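HUMAN:
Just now I want nothing more than another pair of eyes on a protein record. I would be glad if you read both lines and explained how they fit together. I have put the entry right below:
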Amino acid sequence: MNTPQQAFQKFLDQQRADYQRALPEKIAHIRALWSAVADGDETALPVELERLVHTLAGTAGTLGFHEVGAAARALELLLEQAALAGQLPLSPQRADIALAVAALQASLPADEPLS
């Protein structure tokens, strides 16, 4: 019989595994949105991009994916700066944002089992 702590740890481990499996799709969605925003697509919403990046930054860090969380947070700050200046999608930080999106992609953990 499992103790409540063991049951909770098992639950957290499953949440982390599920989240790790979903990370590539989440990041691909962010990359696609940035690409659309940067290309001036009128249907792409910078606000949606910011929301997704913000959520990724918080959730990834909370679940122990610290590199992903840090990369998402750096991207979030760049997006916020550009949005506050009213400069998306033609932000002077456009190249920095593109690099931050690439860094986010590179921060994906290897497909190895979680311990």
Notes: Residues 45-109 form one domain. The mean pLDDT is 87. Residues 81 and 87 are 9 Å apart (CA to CA). DSSP finds four helices and no strands in the chain.
